[in-house]
Amino acid sequence: MDERPGEPALWERLYRLWIAHADQLRRELGEAPAERMLAEAQQVLLTPAGRRAVLLTLRRAPDPPHRATVADRMPPPAPTERTPQ
Description:
The protein is mainly α. It has helices at about 5-20, 20-30, 30-45, 70-75; strands at about 1-5, 55.
């Protein structure tokens, strides 16, 4: 887990810029995308100031050992047999 203490302030600045430039966003992106961005900005700006930002990295558990199946024990095709390409 990686603490990111400056991240909430970064997002706050970004969201405030979106709101300040709402007309430009609507012109450049279109009404629907701009409205979604502005709604996100309004919602997140209501989040309490003391929120904590972290980056969490998950690692997948190793695959279990491979157990041989019937197909693993099949002999390779004979030299005269054609295999699909």
